[in-house]
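From the pipeline queue, job 12 of 40. The input is one protein chain; the requested action is below.

Action: predict structure.
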Amino acid sequence: QVQFVESGGGLVQAGGSLRLSCALSGNTFTYSTIAWYRQAPGKQREFVAAIDGGGNTNYADFVKGRFTISRNIAKNTMWLQINSLKPEDTAVYYCNGRFRQGSWGQGTQVTVSS
């Protein structure tokens, strides 16, 4: 099994930036493509961005150049750099596999004030 632990969230003003981190442990080789997701209050969890073992990335349409996903396979770590934050980015952010998911972690809360 793989464990996903998210960190780096916080309260920021609109226009600010955050860098979220995701630490993987366990049988990490079973997840070649990993991703960030988010869940806003009262909404379903949605896909944000993914990155595969070769560094190829894929983003949700709403990202529009504001988010950058990256990873260090050797360190079993993934990041999500979020710039130009908007109030609608307020959500709990999670990391997990892209094409199949393991257990969900606690996530990290991102709150953007207007």
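Job complete. Residues 21 and 79 are 4 Å apart (CA to CA).
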